[in-house]
């Protein structure tokens, strides 16, 4: 059985230590770590090894799946444990991600470094009408640290364009309240539909959440009803045309029978008179 790791990171004289759960040989473990500020982060992994207890093994580090350059070292067995440590400089959003300490092929411990994530995600789009106003909201969980500020963005193809209220004060309002933010969009047009991103700004990174807005005209909800009405009208018209054609056909057949009867009448009388003579 292998005992998992702990991490120790510090900034100035501030330090924090998180101990992970016990790890069995041949398994892996993931530890999520939230960071708010740039920091020199010391990651330390301790493994009790397997039954063989080799005097030394190879250990190394990975960043986002790629082996960290010059990180491969020989780890000695000391006090029935193998210990692997390294200091990483986490200075920006690009420095965040997955860091793993690997003991040969026996055990791997992964640390996922990230800013606090926005937990509440809306699955369904917000639906509003052309000409109306809409409120789009984002919220950071109460257990998460408060962001320094909030930003709003609108998707433009593969890019995100930041929304600046001062540029269009009649179109947009942004209302921030510690862990909550609201974007108000006035006088909606169909072009306002799409993805909107709220950004919780921390010193180390900006965490994004997204909400989809769908803008429709007032006629849009009536379209299914109108389609049904049109289908009914077409069906009724087809029935009326059929009945009219049947009536005309019956009238024609009746007229033909009457004409045929009139033509046969004089012939019958003539033959009768001839027999009497």
UniProtKB/TrEMBL annotation:
<dbReference type="GO" id="GO:0050839">
    <property type="term" value="F:cell adhesion molecule binding"/>
</dbReference>
<feature type="compositionally biased region" description="Polar residues">
    <location>
        <begin position="261"/>
        <end position="277"/>
    </location>
</feature>
<dbReference type="InterPro" id="IPR051275">
    <property type="entry name" value="Cell_adhesion_signaling"/>
</dbReference>
<dbReference type="InterPro" id="IPR036179">
    <property type="entry name" value="Ig-like_dom_sf"/>
</dbReference>
<dbReference type="InterPro" id="IPR007110">
    <property type="entry name" value="Ig-like_dom"/>
</dbReference>
<feature type="transmembrane region" description="Helical">
    <location>
        <begin position="224"/>
        <end position="242"/>
    </location>
</feature>
<dbReference type="GO" id="GO:0005886">
    <property type="term" value="C:plasma membrane"/>
</dbReference>
<feature type="domain" description="Ig-like">
    <location>
        <begin position="116"/>
        <end position="217"/>
    </location>
</feature>
<keyword id="KW-0812">Transmembrane</keyword>
<keyword id="KW-1133">Transmembrane helix</keyword>
<protein>
    <submittedName>
        <fullName>Embigin</fullName>
    </submittedName>
</protein>
<keyword id="KW-1015">Disulfide bond</keyword>
<feature type="domain" description="Ig-like">
    <location>
        <begin position="41"/>
        <end position="101"/>
    </location>
</feature>
<dbReference type="Pfam" id="PF13927">
    <property type="entry name" value="Ig_3"/>
</dbReference>
<keyword id="KW-0472">Membrane</keyword>
<dbReference type="GO" id="GO:0005911">
    <property type="term" value="C:cell-cell junction"/>
</dbReference>
<dbReference type="InterPro" id="IPR003599">
    <property type="entry name" value="Ig_sub"/>
</dbReference>
<feature type="region of interest" description="Disordered">
    <location>
        <begin position="248"/>
        <end position="277"/>
    </location>
</feature>
<dbReference type="InterPro" id="IPR013783">
    <property type="entry name" value="Ig-like_fold"/>
</dbReference>
<dbReference type="GO" id="GO:0098609">
    <property type="term" value="P:cell-cell adhesion"/>
</dbReference>
<keyword id="KW-0393">Immunoglobulin domain</keyword>
<keyword id="KW-0325">Glycoprotein</keyword>
């Amino acid at each position: 059985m292998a005992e998992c790791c702990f991490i120790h990171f510090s900034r100035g004289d501030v330090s924090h230590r998180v101990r992970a759960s016990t790890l069995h040989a041949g398994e892996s473990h993931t530890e999520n770590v939230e960071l708010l500020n740039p920091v020199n982060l010391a990651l330390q992994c301790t493994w009790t090894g397997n039954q063989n207890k080799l005097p030394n093994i190879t250990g190394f580090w990975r960043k986002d799946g790629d082996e960290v350059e010059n990180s491969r070292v020989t780890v000695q067995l000391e006090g029935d444990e193998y210990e692997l440590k390294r200091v990483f400089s986490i200075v920006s959003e690009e420095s965040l991600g997955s860091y793993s300490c690997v003991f040969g092929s026996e055990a791997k411990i992964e640390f996922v470094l990230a800013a606090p994530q926005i937990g509440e995600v809306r699955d369904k789009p917000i639906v509003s009408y052309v000409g109306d106003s809409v409120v789009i909201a984002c919220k950071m969980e109460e257990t998460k640290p408060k962001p320094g500020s909030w930003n709003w963005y609108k998707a433009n193809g593969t890019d995100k364009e930041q929304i600046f209220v001062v540029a269009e004060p009649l179109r947009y309002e942004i209302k921030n309240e510690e862990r909550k933010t609201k974007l108000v969009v006035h006088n909606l047009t169909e072009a306002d539909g799409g993805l909107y991103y709220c950004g919780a700004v921390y010193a180390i990174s900006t965490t994004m959440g997204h909400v989809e807005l769908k803008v429709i005209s007032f006629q849009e909800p009536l379209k299914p009803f109108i389609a049904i009405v049109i289908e009914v009208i077409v069906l009724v018209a087809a029935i009326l045309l059929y009945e009219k054609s049947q009536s005309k056909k019956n009238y024609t057949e009746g007229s033909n029978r009457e004409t045929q009867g009139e033509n046969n009448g004089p012939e019958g009388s003539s033959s009768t008179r001839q027999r009497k003579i």
